[in-house]
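TICKET: design request
STATUS: open
ATTACHED STRUCTURE:
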């Protein structure tokens, strides 16, 4: 079984307009809402690939129905602990004429200690040996930044596989649980190591990756956007993975999709190279779609991805 954990999901409300000015009344042509959250995105990709996945996390009681209805619509198994209040809403205003975006992200309701206790108790009871648990994203108010370390330790005690996709202090603390995989980009690595964000040589990047391993990461999937990715294994192997080719439509969720694709390969006991192909294909399929990548698009792109051992 694969579990994805989203502690701070969001309802993404996008508004499209041809004119947007501050301090005056504006009008818009179109708006739409989508459920969001890194772990939820990863779960949807895995579900699209027909993997055995359950989306787990915390939802506000007052607007839970929007998420549950979408889960039921796409047939995604889920177990969310309900917390008093609302799940946050993030607003994105797209000025189509100027090709600009303004974001206003919500905070959401504070999560109670009882709610997080229920979630940890669920994981304690359900996780079995060889299960894969992916913890992703930011944290809501009320949850301390050591939570991913706690979750990782539960997974390790159950002899499962722990994958972590977060940043800053949440990642630093989560690394103490020695996650099987993390997927940072260079900006996130600089934040974790507290060094200047700039362009680094490959040799310098390798030293930074080793620092992450020294902090607890077993394997590192170093995301480089349009330049592909490098995978640094715990056996000191290095793989470079190319990107899929296509027309960029929406990059939101492509990183979460990479995690989903790689985990899909792990769940089938595929080779590292094949898992990396699925990671890149899933990321590309999402980038070339309005929503998250479909199985058909992922499988089509999978055949085009080149993986090279360095």
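STATUS: resolved
RESOLUTION: sequence designed for all positions
ATTACHED SEQUENCE:
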């Amino acid at each position: 079984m694969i579990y994805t954990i989203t502690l701070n999901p969001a309802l993404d409300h996008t508004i499209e307009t041809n004119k947007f000015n501050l301090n005056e009344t504006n009008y818009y042509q179109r708006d739409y809402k989508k459920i969001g959250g890194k772990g939820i995105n990863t779960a949807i990709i895995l579900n699209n690939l027909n993997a055995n996945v359950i989306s787990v996390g915390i939802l506000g009681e007052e607007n839970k129905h929007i998420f549950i209805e979408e889960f039921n619509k796409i047939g995604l198994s889920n177990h969310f602990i309900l917390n008093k209040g609302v799940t946050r809403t993030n607003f994105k205003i797209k000025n189509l004429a100027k090709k600009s975006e303004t974001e206003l992200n919500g905070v959401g309701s504070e999560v109670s200690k009882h709610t997080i206790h229920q979630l940890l108790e669920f994981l304690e009871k359900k996780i079995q040996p060889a299960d894969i648990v992916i913890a992703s994203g930011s944290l809501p108010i009320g949850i301390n930044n050591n939570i991913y370390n706690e979750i990782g330790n539960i997974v390790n005690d159950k002899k499962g596989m722990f994958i972590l996709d977060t940043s800053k202090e949440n990642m630093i603390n989560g690394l103490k649980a020695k996650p099987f995989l993390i997927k940072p980009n260079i900006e996130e690595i600089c934040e974790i190591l507290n060094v200047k964000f700039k362009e680094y040589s490959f040799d310098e990047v390798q030293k930074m990756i080793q620092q992450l391993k020294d902090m607890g990461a077993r394997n590192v999937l170093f995301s480089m956007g349009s330049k592909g990715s490098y995978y640094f294994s715990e056996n000191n192997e290095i793989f470079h993975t190319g990107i899929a080719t296509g027309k960029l439509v929406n990059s939101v969720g492509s990183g979460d999709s990479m995690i989903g694709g790689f985990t899909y390969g792990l769940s089938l006991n595929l080779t590292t190279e094949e898992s990396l192909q699925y990671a890149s294909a899933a990321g590309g399929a999402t980038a070339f779609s309005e929503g998250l990548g479909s199985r058909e698009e992922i499988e089509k792109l999978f055949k085009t991805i080149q993986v090279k051992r360095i």
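CLOSING REMARK: The chain has a mean pLDDT of 95. The two ends are 32 Å apart (CA to CA).
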